[in-house]
């Protein structure tokens, strides 16, 4: 099967203060119907990667194919098969949603009737029926973002590039947009998603590429990346810091690395053995101590991100 996205050591350098910045030797692959997330802070190179793969800029080095076509030699064929949702709404605020979508349909080569029919389908799909004939200038941020996504789907793309789609949206609007992206994947579209939100990558991505300072730091599934940080963690929360202090020696006999967290009311220890949780509970019982919460969890993507990008662990649990 031809990969939907395939890049080999692509890069783009810009002259910046203190040296050259940009994207360095990025290699990635995405199969049809997958979500590939580029995760990283501002300036990591995410938008440069998207703009290059979407033919909006030329890479300085490397080769890439999108939807089976070479970016350098067959850029127009690539453009015919992709959609792009940038960081900012690309619709005309003075027009209504219907007018925007019909206009974009005509630009993409659809006839008048086909453009109108496609606009009607997308208005319903993205929950914009009640506001379909209102000027976009009166839309909320979530409504604009849904319209922007709808606009990218006037002609259903094989590959959709979505650059930080939920920046500035409230939690409900973010969830709505996530579900819209999931539905596209169910229909067979491949999505390359850039985001600063760790939860977003965890929720949506089949594979994550972690970027920092223009370079790939790590890649894999969410579980793969979490495993790089360390074993699961046992967290035992107490009603008061004094209780945690009292419990610490007993839990240190389970694992010598047991320690208090920054709040002082929780003891944390690595679950290097499958029985670590049960042994921790037994140790508390023998010591006559009671916890208000005992949990076993994997490291979070926050901890992965901050540890692997060299900024230190997000929390003491990741130390």
Automatic annotation (TrEMBL):
Gene3D superfamilies registered for this protein in UniProt: P-loop containing nucleotide triphosphate hydrolases
Protein's membrane topology: Peripheral membrane protein
Species annotation: Micromonospora lutea
Compartments in which it is found: Cell membrane
Domain ABC transporter intervals: 5-238
Gene Ontology MF terms in the entry: ATP binding
Tree of life domain: Bacteria
Name recorded for this polypeptide: Daunorubicin resistance protein DrrA family ABC transporter ATP-binding protein
